[in-house]
Amino acid sequence: MAQRHPDPTDTPAVPVTGDALAGYLRARATEFLRALRLHRETGGQSGGAPARARAGAGGVVGGTEESVDAARALRRSARRISGSLHTFRPLLDPDWSEEMRPELAWLSGTLGLEHAYEARLERLLLALQRLSGAAVLPGRTAAPAAVGPGGGPDRPAATAERSALTVGAAKAGALLERQLTLARTRAHSTALQALGSSRFHAVADKVALLASEVPLAPAAPTTALHTLARAAEERLTDAVAALPLVTAGHPYNAEALVHGLSPEPSPHPQDGPWHQVRLLLRLHRYAHEVLHGTGTAAPVDLRLLTAGQALNRHRDASEAAAAAAQAARTPRITPATAYALGVLHADQRHEVEASRFTFQQAWQKHTANAP
Amino acid sequence: MAQRHPDPTDTPAVPVTGDALAGYLRARATEFLRALRLHRETGGQSGGAPARARAGAGGVVGGTEESVDAARALRRSARRISGSLHTFRPLLDPDWSEEMRPELAWLSGTLGLEHAYEARLERLLLALQRLSGAAVLPGRTAAPAAVGPGGGPDRPAATAERSALTVGAAKAGALLERQLTLARTRAHSTALQALGSSRFHAVADKVALLASEVPLAPAAPTTALHTLARAAEERLTDAVAALPLVTAGHPYNAEALVHGLSPEPSPHPQDGPWHQVRLLLRLHRYAHEVLHGTGTAAPVDLRLLTAGQALNRHRDASEAAAAAAQAARTPRITPATAYALGVLHADQRHEVEASRFTFQQAWQKHTANAP
């Protein structure tokens, strides 16, 4: 029993060599260039603050819907190239790889920020709407309900209290709208500047080279691809094993809102390990794509997909909760606004908890099904 | 198939007659009188505002712990007599029964209020403590944590924000303490007055008579006891069937916080059917006690017990959430206080949702096991 970890990937059913990695990287680079061309053609760099009418389209540096899609495709390719450089580093020219990675990370980070603020605002406004049972979307005045939930007319006093709180939800919405739109506008400008910068042009040139030739390291062993993919999976498995999954699997464990009134404005430290798993799951998925392809015929583990989506929701809710808490620190807000933001914060923290539960369920099914 | 509901209780394994009801009522009446005597002996009517030191003991009109227990026993017996009069009404003298029921309801309601306010305050302070990770119990100043959740020292700005919010939780706790203690003191006075009133003495006299002789209706059929108990169970089953149990069985359905920002200060109307089931479940349990006895040998359905406890928690959390929302309407509170109350409200609404989930699970197991 000297060999403790007999590695099944030493004898893959279908031999996969460095060619698979090169092919994958070339394809992603080509996608990147296509997205960049489309983005330029569709007026992506026309500038100006994002119009509200485009909200929800998910767009960076937007003009038309096509340019929004193009920007998303840019980020998508950049993430995959960057992730593959990380996982399969020993197979690639080290100098080139070390230089390329941080530039791609900068690019997808910069391009993603505007969309992130936009999605966060939308999530928070939808939650406010759900919580108050009234439209609090910007531009509309929240109309106080004429009749109580009980169905009957109310005492005048109750009606006065009611409109005060309805105003609270509307004011909270307006405050979040103001703050997140400002952040989004700034992110928009930053992204515009980035796309016009010499730094960006240098990345684009490197990706253009990558589309024709992938700088593989000399003499990498044939089996290394599988071994490295397996290592990425093990990093994921280890990180998941360190998560409090037993707690997460108990519905309504009330864990996510512990310290909900603790005054740390940044996302909860307890969220960190989950964010980390989210990134490792993504790397694992990209490595899987390298080995098995990205086409419709490629095998997809739906449970792993569900798990990944749960972690995306976890991240989004975590950041939305932090944004609500942050907004509550704005000077001179009314108590009604602050109350609404408190309810909203707790609501989003429960979304965090719900996402962990969903992840736990999906992961459990995934591992039960694993070979 | 003319007989659609073949009633198994028509041929009970052990024949139970009106005697069982009379015995049950006599026993409860005796308990009532014993509790009343104990309550008087232990200084229950010594008066004065409840001292904080007794908080958590659950007591009405308290002095010693014994008098608190005695008051609880009084309520317990009154509820059981009242419930049995309701369920088995056709077996009892109608005039006597009609006169007795509202008086017992008045008594247990009046005696229960002080305890309810006390328990509500304790629930809310514990929740605040859990949410803020700091002691916010009255009399203590909430100490701002010296070190951030991340473990490292913080920027001065973050520390300033932090103490602001810790103060928010502490202020929210102090506000709730003030409001609920006032309500409790009033309930205490009301209970004291009630226990000294001629109305109470009239009830006590009636219960004393009941302890020796139960006014049964003449010529009630032997099988009626089982039939009436079955009818109480059917009322429960029908009410449960009308609950949104499918939704409740999905963890994190986010149903309880819908309209969490709707401005109705009273408990959510969606809670009503659950409260109703809680009462029907209690009546069913009392009817079961009449038929099968109350001793340690009596069969107890643990799942039904769990279901009942879940509904108690549902009621408590619902009322605590309403108290937090009500406190947020206090004029001139700070935004930090209002924010903390908003988080607290949402937290308790999630307790409501969690209780429904627990009930759904217990009820499902109960019915799966039913004959």
Automatic annotation (TrEMBL), chains A, B:
Organism of provenance: Streptomyces dangxiongensis
Organism lineage: Bacteria, Bacillati, Actinomycetota, Actinomycetes, Kitasatosporales
Residue ranges, annotated region (Disordered): 42-62
Protein known as: CHAD domain-containing protein
Pfam families: CHAD (PF05235)
Domain CHAD: 26-368
